[in-house]
Amino acid sequence: MDSYVRACIEEIRIARVGEETPLATSVFVGGGTPSRLSPELIEALVRAVPSVPGVEVTVECNPEDASSATFDRWRTAGVTRVSLGLQSTDPRVLAGLGRRHGPASAEPVLAQAWAAGFDSVSVDLIFGGPGETDDSWARTLIAVVGSPYAPTHVSAYALTVEPGTPLGADEERHPDDDEQARRYEIAEEILSGAGYRWYEVSSWAKPGYECRHNQLYWTQGDYRGIGCAAHSHRAGRRWWNVRTPDRYVRLIESGDSVVAGEEVLDPGRRAFEALAMGLRTARGVPHSALPDDLDLTGIFERSGDRAVLTVRGRLLANDIAARLLVNS
Q1: Per-residue confidence at 31, pLDDT binned at 50, 70, 90?
Q2: Which of 49, 64, 40, 51 is nearest to 8 (CA)?
Q3: Are residues 308 and 181 in the same domain?
Q4: I need a surface site. Which of 100, 121, 233, 234 has the fewest CB within 10 A?
Q5: Could you tell me the pTM of the whole model?
Q6: 230 part of a folded domain
Protein backbone atom coordinates (compact mmCIF):
# COMPACT_ATOMS: atom_id res chain seq x y z
CA MET A 1 0.00 0.00 0.00
CA ASP A 2 2.83 2.42 0.83
CA SER A 3 4.54 1.92 -2.54
CA TYR A 4 1.25 2.29 -4.40
CA VAL A 5 0.37 5.57 -2.69
CA ARG A 6 3.91 6.86 -3.30
CA ALA A 7 3.45 6.06 -6.97
CA CYS A 8 0.12 7.89 -7.07
CA ILE A 9 1.66 10.95 -5.44
CA GLU A 10 4.50 10.87 -7.97
CA GLU A 11 1.99 10.70 -10.84
CA ILE A 12 0.23 13.74 -9.37
CA ARG A 13 3.58 15.58 -9.28
CA ILE A 14 4.35 14.65 -12.88
CA ALA A 15 0.92 15.81 -14.01
CA ARG A 16 1.36 19.16 -12.27
CA VAL A 17 4.73 19.76 -13.91
CA GLY A 18 4.22 18.25 -17.36
CA GLU A 19 0.65 19.19 -18.20
CA GLU A 20 0.10 22.45 -16.34
CA THR A 21 -2.86 20.78 -14.63
CA PRO A 22 -5.32 23.35 -13.24
CA LEU A 23 -6.41 23.31 -9.61
CA ALA A 24 -8.94 20.61 -8.79
CA THR A 25 -12.51 21.63 -8.01
CA SER A 26 -13.28 18.12 -6.76
CA VAL A 27 -11.34 15.04 -5.68
CA PHE A 28 -12.76 11.52 -5.50
CA VAL A 29 -10.75 8.74 -3.87
CA GLY A 30 -12.49 5.57 -4.97
CA GLY A 31 -12.75 2.95 -7.65
CA GLY A 32 -11.80 0.17 -5.26
CA THR A 33 -11.42 0.01 -1.51
CA PRO A 34 -9.46 3.10 -0.45
CA SER A 35 -10.69 2.74 3.11
CA ARG A 36 -8.24 -0.16 3.49
CA LEU A 37 -5.47 2.43 3.39
CA SER A 38 -4.29 3.88 6.68
CA PRO A 39 -5.57 7.36 7.55
CA GLU A 40 -2.00 8.61 7.10
CA LEU A 41 -1.91 7.40 3.48
CA ILE A 42 -5.33 8.90 2.72
CA GLU A 43 -4.10 12.19 4.16
CA ALA A 44 -0.94 12.06 2.03
CA LEU A 45 -2.99 11.47 -1.13
CA VAL A 46 -5.48 14.24 -0.45
CA ARG A 47 -2.82 16.78 0.47
CA ALA A 48 -0.85 16.01 -2.73
CA VAL A 49 -3.65 17.30 -4.96
CA PRO A 50 -3.50 21.04 -5.76
CA SER A 51 -7.05 22.30 -5.35
CA VAL A 52 -9.22 25.40 -5.18
CA PRO A 53 -10.61 26.75 -1.91
CA GLY A 54 -13.84 24.94 -1.03
CA VAL A 55 -12.88 21.83 -3.02
CA GLU A 56 -15.18 18.82 -2.64
CA VAL A 57 -13.13 15.82 -1.46
CA THR A 58 -14.88 12.43 -1.34
CA VAL A 59 -13.48 9.15 -0.02
CA GLU A 60 -15.28 5.85 -0.48
CA CYS A 61 -15.51 3.69 2.63
CA ASN A 62 -16.65 0.17 3.39
CA PRO A 63 -18.60 -0.06 6.68
CA GLU A 64 -16.20 -2.59 8.18
CA ASP A 65 -13.33 -0.09 7.79
CA ALA A 66 -15.17 2.78 9.45
CA SER A 67 -14.33 4.20 12.86
CA SER A 68 -14.66 7.54 14.60
CA ALA A 69 -10.88 7.88 14.70
CA THR A 70 -10.54 7.21 10.97
CA PHE A 71 -13.27 9.67 10.04
CA ASP A 72 -11.81 12.33 12.33
CA ARG A 73 -8.41 11.94 10.67
CA TRP A 74 -9.93 12.16 7.18
CA ARG A 75 -11.81 15.31 8.13
CA THR A 76 -8.66 16.91 9.46
CA ALA A 77 -6.90 16.02 6.20
CA GLY A 78 -9.49 17.96 4.20
CA VAL A 79 -12.02 15.27 3.27
CA THR A 80 -15.44 16.93 3.02
CA ARG A 81 -17.62 14.05 1.87
CA VAL A 82 -17.72 10.31 2.61
CA SER A 83 -19.41 7.69 0.44
CA LEU A 84 -20.43 4.57 2.37
CA GLY A 85 -20.73 1.27 0.50
CA LEU A 86 -23.61 -0.18 2.53
CA GLN A 87 -25.24 -1.95 -0.47
CA SER A 88 -28.07 -3.48 1.59
CA THR A 89 -29.43 -4.14 5.08
CA ASP A 90 -30.70 -7.59 4.04
CA PRO A 91 -28.37 -10.29 5.46
CA ARG A 92 -29.12 -12.64 2.55
CA VAL A 93 -28.17 -10.00 -0.01
CA LEU A 94 -24.99 -9.04 1.84
CA ALA A 95 -23.97 -12.71 2.03
CA GLY A 96 -24.73 -13.18 -1.68
CA LEU A 97 -22.59 -10.18 -2.55
CA GLY A 98 -19.76 -11.43 -0.37
CA ARG A 99 -19.82 -8.37 1.87
CA ARG A 100 -18.19 -8.55 5.30
CA HIS A 101 -20.31 -6.03 7.19
CA GLY A 102 -23.59 -6.91 8.89
CA PRO A 103 -27.12 -5.64 8.26
CA ALA A 104 -27.15 -3.53 11.43
CA SER A 105 -24.08 -1.48 10.51
CA ALA A 106 -25.90 1.30 8.63
CA GLU A 107 -26.96 3.53 11.51
CA PRO A 108 -23.74 3.34 13.60
CA VAL A 109 -21.57 4.14 10.55
CA LEU A 110 -23.81 7.02 9.52
CA ALA A 111 -23.66 8.38 13.06
CA GLN A 112 -19.86 8.21 13.08
CA ALA A 113 -19.66 10.00 9.73
CA TRP A 114 -21.86 12.89 10.81
CA ALA A 115 -20.05 13.16 14.15
CA ALA A 116 -16.78 13.68 12.26
CA GLY A 117 -18.23 16.83 10.70
CA PHE A 118 -18.33 15.97 7.00
CA ASP A 119 -20.29 18.39 4.83
CA SER A 120 -22.13 15.54 3.10
CA VAL A 121 -22.60 11.81 3.63
CA SER A 122 -23.55 9.52 0.76
CA VAL A 123 -24.71 5.90 0.76
CA ASP A 124 -24.30 3.41 -2.08
CA LEU A 125 -26.97 0.73 -2.44
CA ILE A 126 -27.34 -2.21 -4.86
CA PHE A 127 -30.66 -3.75 -5.87
CA GLY A 128 -31.27 -7.09 -7.53
CA GLY A 129 -28.94 -9.13 -5.35
CA PRO A 130 -29.48 -12.84 -4.63
CA GLY A 131 -32.23 -13.39 -2.08
CA GLU A 132 -33.66 -9.89 -2.32
CA THR A 133 -37.41 -9.24 -2.49
CA ASP A 134 -39.40 -6.09 -3.12
CA ASP A 135 -40.12 -5.88 0.60
CA SER A 136 -36.53 -6.38 1.71
CA TRP A 137 -35.34 -3.75 -0.78
CA ALA A 138 -37.94 -1.32 0.55
CA ARG A 139 -36.79 -2.05 4.11
CA THR A 140 -33.20 -1.27 3.13
CA LEU A 141 -34.21 2.10 1.70
CA ILE A 142 -36.38 2.95 4.71
CA ALA A 143 -33.63 1.96 7.16
CA VAL A 144 -31.23 4.37 5.43
CA VAL A 145 -33.42 7.41 4.80
CA GLY A 146 -35.49 6.93 7.95
CA SER A 147 -32.45 6.94 10.20
CA PRO A 148 -31.91 9.94 12.50
CA TYR A 149 -28.48 10.05 10.79
CA ALA A 150 -29.88 9.86 7.24
CA PRO A 151 -27.44 10.66 4.42
CA THR A 152 -27.72 13.69 2.19
CA HIS A 153 -27.07 11.61 -0.94
CA VAL A 154 -28.06 8.11 -2.08
CA SER A 155 -26.81 6.17 -5.09
CA ALA A 156 -28.79 3.05 -6.05
CA TYR A 157 -27.37 0.76 -8.71
CA ALA A 158 -28.81 -2.31 -10.38
CA LEU A 159 -26.62 -5.35 -9.82
CA THR A 160 -24.68 -6.21 -12.97
CA VAL A 161 -23.25 -9.65 -13.63
CA GLU A 162 -19.62 -9.69 -14.78
CA PRO A 163 -18.22 -12.66 -16.76
CA GLY A 164 -15.66 -14.75 -14.94
CA THR A 165 -17.07 -14.11 -11.47
CA PRO A 166 -18.78 -16.65 -9.16
CA LEU A 167 -22.05 -14.78 -9.70
CA GLY A 168 -21.54 -14.88 -13.46
CA ALA A 169 -21.14 -18.65 -13.37
CA ASP A 170 -24.38 -19.20 -11.42
CA GLU A 171 -27.33 -18.37 -13.66
CA GLU A 172 -29.79 -19.15 -10.88
CA ARG A 173 -28.55 -16.06 -9.03
CA HIS A 174 -28.70 -13.64 -11.97
CA PRO A 175 -31.06 -10.68 -11.47
CA ASP A 176 -34.31 -10.50 -13.42
CA ASP A 177 -34.77 -7.39 -15.59
CA ASP A 178 -38.42 -6.91 -14.65
CA GLU A 179 -37.67 -7.30 -10.95
CA GLN A 180 -34.87 -4.76 -11.18
CA ALA A 181 -37.18 -2.31 -12.96
CA ARG A 182 -39.71 -2.69 -10.15
CA ARG A 183 -36.99 -2.15 -7.53
CA TYR A 184 -35.94 1.06 -9.27
CA GLU A 185 -39.52 2.31 -9.12
CA ILE A 186 -39.63 1.44 -5.40
CA ALA A 187 -36.43 3.42 -4.89
CA GLU A 188 -37.85 6.47 -6.64
CA GLU A 189 -41.04 6.32 -4.60
CA ILE A 190 -39.34 5.99 -1.21
CA LEU A 191 -36.49 8.41 -1.88
CA SER A 192 -38.64 11.15 -3.37
CA GLY A 193 -41.07 10.71 -0.49
CA ALA A 194 -38.20 11.32 1.93
CA GLY A 195 -37.17 14.58 0.26
CA TYR A 196 -34.47 13.30 -2.09
CA ARG A 197 -34.54 14.35 -5.75
CA TRP A 198 -33.07 12.39 -8.60
CA TYR A 199 -30.48 14.30 -10.59
CA GLU A 200 -28.95 11.35 -12.48
CA VAL A 201 -30.49 7.96 -13.24
CA SER A 202 -28.76 6.25 -10.29
CA SER A 203 -28.37 9.25 -7.97
CA TRP A 204 -30.67 11.08 -5.56
CA ALA A 205 -29.76 13.95 -3.23
CA LYS A 206 -31.24 16.43 -0.83
CA PRO A 207 -31.30 19.84 -2.54
CA GLY A 208 -27.79 21.31 -2.68
CA TYR A 209 -26.02 18.00 -1.95
CA GLU A 210 -25.54 16.68 -5.48
CA CYS A 211 -22.08 15.19 -6.03
CA ARG A 212 -19.98 17.86 -7.73
CA HIS A 213 -17.42 15.32 -8.93
CA ASN A 214 -19.90 13.05 -10.69
CA GLN A 215 -21.61 16.02 -12.33
CA LEU A 216 -18.26 16.82 -13.93
CA TYR A 217 -18.33 13.45 -15.71
CA TRP A 218 -21.91 13.86 -16.93
CA THR A 219 -21.18 17.29 -18.43
CA GLN A 220 -17.99 16.22 -20.26
CA GLY A 221 -15.73 18.18 -17.96
CA ASP A 222 -11.99 17.68 -17.78
CA TYR A 223 -10.68 15.30 -15.14
CA ARG A 224 -7.37 13.66 -14.30
CA GLY A 225 -7.33 10.05 -13.15
CA ILE A 226 -4.51 8.89 -10.89
CA GLY A 227 -3.52 5.26 -10.24
CA CYS A 228 -3.81 1.93 -12.02
CA ALA A 229 -6.66 1.67 -14.56
CA ALA A 230 -7.56 5.34 -13.97
CA HIS A 231 -9.18 7.21 -16.87
CA SER A 232 -8.65 10.87 -17.77
CA HIS A 233 -10.27 13.37 -20.13
CA ARG A 234 -9.21 16.70 -21.52
CA ALA A 235 -10.84 18.57 -24.40
CA GLY A 236 -12.06 15.47 -26.22
CA ARG A 237 -8.98 13.32 -25.59
CA ARG A 238 -9.42 10.32 -23.29
CA TRP A 239 -6.61 8.17 -21.98
CA TRP A 240 -6.21 5.42 -19.40
CA ASN A 241 -3.47 3.90 -17.28
CA VAL A 242 -2.16 0.35 -17.12
CA ARG A 243 -4.51 -1.98 -15.32
CA THR A 244 -2.55 -3.79 -12.59
CA PRO A 245 -1.11 -2.15 -9.46
CA ASP A 246 2.24 -3.94 -9.66
CA ARG A 247 2.91 -2.83 -13.22
CA TYR A 248 1.75 0.69 -12.44
CA VAL A 249 4.16 1.00 -9.51
CA ARG A 250 7.08 -0.43 -11.55
CA LEU A 251 6.53 2.03 -14.39
CA ILE A 252 6.33 5.01 -12.05
CA GLU A 253 9.46 3.94 -10.19
CA SER A 254 11.38 3.54 -13.47
CA GLY A 255 10.23 6.91 -14.80
CA ASP A 256 8.22 5.42 -17.67
CA SER A 257 4.74 6.39 -18.87
CA VAL A 258 1.82 4.59 -17.25
CA VAL A 259 -0.57 5.40 -20.12
CA ALA A 260 -1.92 2.20 -21.69
CA GLY A 261 -4.04 3.75 -24.46
CA GLU A 262 -5.97 6.78 -25.65
CA GLU A 263 -8.67 7.97 -28.02
CA VAL A 264 -9.49 11.36 -29.51
CA LEU A 265 -13.16 12.09 -30.07
CA ASP A 266 -14.25 13.89 -33.21
CA PRO A 267 -16.84 16.70 -32.88
CA GLY A 268 -19.73 14.42 -33.89
CA ARG A 269 -18.85 11.82 -31.27
CA ARG A 270 -18.45 14.47 -28.58
CA ALA A 271 -21.84 15.95 -29.45
CA PHE A 272 -23.53 12.54 -29.30
CA GLU A 273 -21.92 11.68 -25.95
CA ALA A 274 -23.03 15.05 -24.56
CA LEU A 275 -26.61 14.11 -25.43
CA ALA A 276 -26.31 10.53 -24.14
CA MET A 277 -24.94 11.69 -20.78
CA GLY A 278 -27.33 14.62 -20.54
CA LEU A 279 -30.21 12.23 -21.10
CA ARG A 280 -29.31 10.48 -17.83
CA THR A 281 -29.66 13.70 -15.82
CA ALA A 282 -32.53 15.81 -14.58
CA ARG A 283 -31.42 18.55 -16.97
CA GLY A 284 -32.40 16.34 -19.90
CA VAL A 285 -31.77 17.06 -23.59
CA PRO A 286 -33.08 19.60 -26.14
CA HIS A 287 -36.42 18.64 -27.69
CA SER A 288 -34.75 18.84 -31.08
CA ALA A 289 -32.61 15.82 -30.19
CA LEU A 290 -35.66 13.52 -29.98
CA PRO A 291 -36.52 11.47 -33.08
CA ASP A 292 -39.90 12.04 -34.71
CA ASP A 293 -40.50 8.35 -35.35
CA LEU A 294 -40.38 7.24 -31.71
CA ASP A 295 -43.43 7.03 -29.47
CA LEU A 296 -42.33 9.04 -26.45
CA THR A 297 -45.62 8.90 -24.57
CA GLY A 298 -44.91 8.52 -20.85
CA ILE A 299 -41.14 8.53 -21.43
CA PHE A 300 -40.40 12.26 -21.35
CA GLU A 301 -41.80 15.34 -19.70
CA ARG A 302 -41.20 18.95 -20.70
CA SER A 303 -38.94 21.29 -18.76
CA GLY A 304 -38.85 24.53 -20.74
CA ASP A 305 -37.20 23.77 -24.07
CA ARG A 306 -35.78 20.49 -22.81
CA ALA A 307 -37.05 16.94 -22.48
CA VAL A 308 -36.48 15.09 -19.20
CA LEU A 309 -36.96 11.37 -18.65
CA THR A 310 -39.87 10.18 -16.53
CA VAL A 311 -39.37 7.26 -14.16
CA ARG A 312 -40.45 4.89 -16.94
CA GLY A 313 -38.08 6.65 -19.33
CA ARG A 314 -35.15 6.21 -16.97
CA LEU A 315 -35.66 2.46 -17.17
CA LEU A 316 -35.15 2.72 -20.94
CA ALA A 317 -32.36 5.31 -20.94
CA ASN A 318 -29.78 3.18 -22.77
CA ASP A 319 -32.18 2.27 -25.56
CA ILE A 320 -33.36 5.86 -25.96
CA ALA A 321 -29.81 7.22 -26.01
CA ALA A 322 -29.03 5.15 -29.10
CA ARG A 323 -31.78 7.02 -31.00
CA LEU A 324 -30.89 10.59 -30.11
CA LEU A 325 -30.27 13.00 -32.98
CA VAL A 326 -27.17 15.19 -33.14
CA ASN A 327 -28.13 18.50 -34.78
CA SER A 328 -25.50 20.00 -36.99
Answers
A1: confident
A2: 49
A3: no
A4: 100
A5: 0.93
A6: no
